[in-house]
Amino acid sequence: MAELDFIGLRAEVEAATMLPDFGQVTMRARRARRRARLATLSAALTVLAVLAPAGVISARERAVNQAAPVSRTDQPSPFEIGLQTPPAPPSAPPVAVQSSIVAADGVNLSNVYALINVCAADSCNLQLSKIQLTPSAGVGPDRIGLLRDKASQFLSGFRLDALSTTSVVASAVPPNGGRKFVRVDTGTSADATSNTLAKVGEPVAPIDGSGELWAMDSQSNQLSGLANQPPVRQPTVASVPASKGLWVTGTDASGKQLVVAESSDAGRTWRSSTLETLPSDAGPPVLASYNGRVAYLLLRGADSQFEVWRTGDSGATWQRTSTQLPWRADNRSDYGIVVRPDGTPLAWLATSPTVTYAQSSNDGRTFDNVEGPGGPVIQVSDGYVSLGGPPKVSTDGLTWKQAGLPILPVTN
Questions:
Q1: What letters, b where the CB count within 10 A reaches 16 and e where it falls short, cover 80-103?
Q2: CA separation (Å) from 183 to 176, 206, 296?
Q3: Which of 83, 153, 155, 339 is deepest in the core (most CB within 10 A)?
Q4: Is residue 370 situated within a structural domain?
Q5: Greater confidence, 319 or 21?
Q6: In a shared domain, residues 240 and 217
Q7: 66 phi, psi to nearest 5 deg
Q8: Cα(91)–Cα(169) distance, integer angstroms
């Protein structure tokens, strides 16, 4: 029988049943936890590196969509990263916009058009708008951007002549001289000319730089010619109701003598009178009549003195009145005159910042300052229009009602 090795057996039993060294166990556990945390962090960084570009692209797409909305059917990405939009830079200071009525005309109060010069800094836009007897929201200009070759071009001598309820001729003088014309039709007027002659009572106006006057046939909406052109150079049609005759001012062949011509048969026959020699710097003469028999002519003559001429026989003869208007002689502002239904002439002078008015109750022999509607005044067939801001209309030249005038603001 083999002898047992009790000493070796005892050593093995003691080794198997010995308590562990808790200090070493704790150190091994801490090392294991650190390795686990490092592995988790590394995995997380890897995931973020993959997903971040997709989130940036998605945010950029969202910014584009906000700037230019489009129809989208896709769902937003679950990985979108919310980017904070930087604050917008401060906006530029607002540019002052100035607008002024520079010319107007119409066949009646219901169809008056105005030329409005709308400017911001050195940019201007010439607009055509119909004056609204009852201001309406949402109504805009009939035309914009008229006559100018570029927004900064300077124009002067604005004029508007109505041919019908829907057709007007706008003109102005550019820097290089001459006169530029444009005809605007807001209805169904045709460009072609007809073989018919102008009829009595039809409005007449120049349509281009030739100086020829044309009418518009009320039935066909086509241009119709005059049997004979007026015996003047550079004719200007007076704002006299067309039913009261055709009145024209201009010069003789020399270009120095003032001539007034009148026709009661639409240009078939004319009577004309040469009044006086005009100074080279004289302003345009302004003629007005209510009944077609008595008419007044206001002009700036020698030494810048205002002169008033009167006829009581439809222009066959003219007399210069001895009146002295209560205005400064050296004033170079615009001026005009109209005649009320009661026969009293009302003159106006565009002073800054307002308009000065003077009327006569004794056939133009004397004029006295009076209150007015606040703007230059023109005459149409059935009333009067004040071209202030805002415009006003009147049927008798005494009581006025505010009207509307659509414009489109411009920016520099």
A1: eeeeeeeeeeeeeeeeebebebbb
A2: 21, 10, 29
A3: 339
A4: yes
A5: 319
A6: no
A7: -70, -35
A8: 40
Residues pairing with 117 in the sheet: 100, 126
* Cα–Cα distance, 118 to 411 (Å, whole number): 10
pLDDT average, residue stretch 73-79 = 33
Q: Are 381 and 242 in contact (CB under 8 A)?
A: yes
Domain match, 242 and 377 both: yes
Work out the percent of the chain whose per-residue pLDDT is above 90: 54
Of 286, 369, 300, 358, nearest to 331 (Cα)? 300
| Residue recorded with tokens 């004979």 | 228
Let me know if residue 182 belongs to a domain: yes
Per the structure, the count of domains in the chain is 2
pTM for this entry: 0.74
Residues 153 and 207 in one domain: yes
Which residues form the domain of 159? 99-226+389-412
Cis link prior to 353 (omega < 30° from 0)? Answer: yes
Given the DSSP bridges, would you call strands 306-311 and 319-320 parallel, antiparallel or unpaired?
A: antiparallel
Domain annotation covers residue 37: no
* Residue whose token pair is 């650190």: 34
The total of other beta-carbon atoms located within 10 Å of residue 137's CB is 6
**Within this chain, do residues 115 and 221 fall inside the same structural domain, yes or no?**
yes
Same structural domain, 211 and 263: no
Residue 187 has pLDDT above 90, yes or no: no
Query: Is the residue at 15 inside a domain?
Result: no
